[in-house]
């Protein structure tokens, strides 16, 4: 399986963020999007996730499910945690599993994977920033999708949680998954390639 972007261009607010951008990421590979603030790392992830329309270019998941779009085969972890504060940890994850067409039987193991099982009954509104992020990460574990799009996934995570996330990313790659992550620092992946985006500092 290969995620292939060709000649992609992105325009936001009538300003060209990037143009002529190409990349290919194979199953089992990670591509780190690096570059200064405003370079377009988040924009590229949002474009692949189907949240921003490309001004030009094509994006295909070669070897993916031809019945599904690229966004339907991708998990997008953005800056917003997309949780309902009045619902518990378990209820939030159950919502996401249903929404993403997953199996609720995967819920408990996913909470364990992000070490939230002890606060499973707490409303999400009471969670710390790092706990909220871990709950968002749990949906990637609960519902299998071949492409992970992660925007600064370690933000708010403590050292133990960063190591746990690194383990989850490595397992995803070992299973043939594709990973693209925007980051300003190391993510604990030894073999990741980098795509450097330009732009204003
Ligand atoms: N909705 C929007 N409307 C107009 N311009 C936008 C919009 N969203 C982002 N931009 C602009 O697009 C450019 C790229 O932003 P983006 O968030 O993709 O950068 P980034 O590389 O992820 O930056 P950072 O490292 O700060 O997260 C910035 O100049 C930003 O101001």
Low-confidence stretches: none
**Envelope shape:** globular
- Provide the domain count: 1
CATH homologous superfamily grouping: P-loop containing nucleotide triphosphate hydrolases
Report the C-alpha radius of gyration, rounded: 17 Å
Portion of residues within helices:
25-40%
Structural classification? alpha/beta
Distance between the termini: 35 Å
Tell me what portion of residues adopts beta-strand conformation: 25-35%
Order of helices and strands: EEEHEEHHHEHEE
Number of discrete helical segments? 5
What is the β-strand count? 8
**Mean pLDDT value:** 96
- The strand order across the widest sheet is 5-6-7-3-8
Bound molecules: adenosine-5'-triphosphate
**Main sheet overview:** 5 strands, parallel
Tell me what the CATH architecture is: 3-Layer(aba) Sandwich
| CATH domain class name | Alpha Beta
GO biological process, one term: cytochrome complex assembly
Protein name: Heme ABC exporter ATP-binding protein CcmA
Pfam families: ABC_tran
GO molecular function, one term: ATP binding
Furnish the topology, listing elements before pairings.
Elements lengths: L1 E11 L2 E12 L3 E5 L6 H8 L7 E7 L11 E4 L11 H11 L7 H7 L15 H14 L4 E5 L7 H16 L3 E5 L10 E4 L5
Parallel strand pairs: 3-7, 3-8, 5-6, 6-7
Antiparallel strand pairs: 1-2, 1-4
Helix pairs in contact: 2-4, 3-4
The structure holds adenosine-5'-triphosphate (ATP).
Structure overview:
The protein is α/β, with parallel strands linked by helices and 201 residues long. 28% of the residues lie in helices and 26% in strands. The protein has helices at residues 41-48, 89-99, 107-113, 129-142, 159-174; strands at 2-12, 15-26, 30-34, 56-62, 74-77, 147-151, 178-182, 193-196. Helix 2 packs parallel to helix 4 (129-142). The longest helix is centred in the last third of the chain and has 16 residues, at 159-174. The structure holds adenosine-5'-triphosphate. Adenosine-5'-triphosphate binds next to helix 1. GO terms for molecular function: ATP binding; ATP hydrolysis activity; transmembrane transporter activity. It holds the Pfam family ABC_tran.
């Amino acid at each position: 399986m290969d995620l292939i972007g060709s000649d992609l261009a992105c325009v936001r607010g009538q300003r060209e963020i990037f143009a002529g951008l190409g990349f290919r990421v194979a199953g089992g590979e990670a591509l780190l999007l690096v570059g200064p603030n405003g370079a377009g790392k988040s924009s590229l992830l949002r474009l692949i996730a189907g949240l921003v329309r490309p001004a030009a270019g094509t994006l295909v998941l070669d070897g993916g499910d031809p019945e599904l779009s690229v966004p339907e085969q991708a998990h997008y972890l953005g800056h917003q945690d997309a949780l309902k504060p009045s619902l518990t940890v378990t209820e939030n994850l159950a919502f996401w599993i249903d929404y993403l067409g997953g199996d609720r039987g995967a819920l408990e193991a996913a909470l364990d994977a992000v070490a939230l099982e002890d606060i499973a009954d707490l409303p999400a509104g009471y969670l710390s920033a790092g706990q909220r992020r871990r709950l968002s990460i749990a949906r990637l574990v609960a519902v299998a999708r071949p492409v992970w799009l992660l925007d600064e996934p370690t933000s708010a995570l403590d050292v133990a949680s960063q190591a746990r996330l690194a383990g989850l990313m490595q397992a995803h790659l070992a299973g043939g998954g594709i990973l693209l992550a925007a980051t300003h620092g190391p993510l604990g992946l030894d073999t990741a390639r980098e795509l450097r985006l330009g732009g204003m500092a």
